[in-house]
Amino acid sequence: MRAGLIVLALLLSGCGPRGGDLPGDTAIAGAPDCGKKPGFVSIQPDAKVLVCSVSHEPRKDSGTLIYTTATAPAALLATVKDAAVKAGLEEKISTPETFSAGQGDRRSLTVMASPKDAGSQITLMWSRER
């Protein structure tokens, strides 16, 4: 019995706690129930969040946001690119509609912008290792 409990304790110790917020994480404006985003993810102040999903796993966090903004796609992607580079991410893809950056397998960011009314609709996906 005692040996069984010790084995169970050792097995469970490898599971580790689920992920959660890390220092530098900030609330997602317009989606208070969604959780927080890492500092390398920038969102326009006027964002109207349509879809928000944040997942915390033992070794990885990820999120997807779809939102609209009055900012034009080109200006938005320039802002996202600037923030990502300042956060230490390396540019992977940059087109008039898409920007993608990463830091090896540790952190990644992909943003797609399309015209919507007078502004943009944005699909943003991020991930990071814990």
What layout of secondary structure does this protein have?
Blueprint: H1 2-13, E1 26-27, E2 36-37, E3 48-56, E4 60-69, H2 73-86, E5 90-94, E6 98-103, E7 107-116, E8 119-129
Word description of this protein:
By secondary structure, this protein is an alpha+beta fold. The chain has one domain (19-129): TATA-Binding Protein. Helices cover 20% and strands 42% of the residues. It is built from two helices and eight strands; from the N terminus they run αββββαββββ. The strands form two sheets. It has a six-stranded antiparallel beta sheet with strand order 3-4-8-7-6-5, with helices on one face. Strands 1-2 form a two-stranded antiparallel sheet. The longest helix is centred in the middle third of the chain and has 14 residues, at 73-86. The chain is globular and about 40 Å long. The model is unreliable at 1-19 (pLDDT under 50).
- Residue share in helices? 10-25%
Which strand order do you get reading across the main beta sheet?
A: 3-4-8-7-6-5
CA gyration radius, whole angstroms: 18 Å
CATH architecture label: 2-Layer Sandwich
